[in-house]
Amino acid sequence: MTPLTFLTEPEPPRGVAFSVAPGIRRLVAPNPGPYTYHGTNTYLIDGVGGTTVLDPGPDDAGHVATILASAGKVARIFLTHAHPDHAGALPTLRTATAAPVFAHGEGVADGAAIGIWTALHTPGHAPDHLCFARADGVVLTGDHVMSFSTSVVIPPAGDMAAYMAHLRRLLARAEDTLFLPGHGPPIPNPRAFTAALLRHREEREAAVRAALQDGPLTAAAIVERLYVPLDPRLRGAAEASVTAHLVKLQREGSAETDGTVWRLT
Hints:
Blueprint: E1 18-21, E2 24-28, E3 41-47, E4 50-54, H1 61-71, E5 74-78, H2 84-87, H3 90-97, E6 101-102, E7 113-114, E8 117-121, E9 130-134, E10 138-142, H4 160-171, E11 178-181, H5 190-212, E12 217-218, H6 219-226, H7 235-251, E13 255-257, E14 261-264
Parallel strand pairs: 4-5, 5-6, 10-11
Antiparallel strand pairs: 1-2, 2-3, 3-4, 7-8, 8-9, 9-10, 12-14, 13-14
Helix pairs in contact: 4-5, 5-7, 6-7
């Protein structure tokens, strides 16, 4: 497979909001780990009438206090998706500010205009996932496109076909110039980066199909063949990713399963 080049950075300042784009500051939550990198990115978007907070982050009192101290008046809250590392602090922040919430489950549809932002429904990692695009080319991509790693797609809520389709959707947006992801540093060359992510998924699917040409296998057995070496902490994510590809192939009529073992049709 073509190797992916991810973006790295030193550990960011803690408890400090720092500028990453015109009118946008980044706070990194204190939840580092193999799936979150240095932590969840909370973005503070300055605007007329107050600050928009995108992804309040995990349920952490200290992080919420930093958001409130850094944001000043919170005018509204954007949510990319409801996973707890992005939305755990939402109830606390909502209570503290009484700010309206804009999320897929709260009336925001694909293409909705919210001030100068446009919501893009990008299911795949999660069925409710939204990206938020600004006319100057900045896109807040949540976990749909992260800079430090591929996104985890875990069936049944995660959908690999949808994920790949919406990578193609972002790739077709020639006007985008900067992605601000849910984890990791900004992505300054987003079309090339997104193209590499899509190519990786296409090659992974081809490798899964090739593994099954030798005979029926479990998802765990396919992981053993394809992921060498593999950080033991990421084995669950790797098996979920392979299963997501297998489910996609099943829906397309190319694979079948008895519930444990997969085979080509």
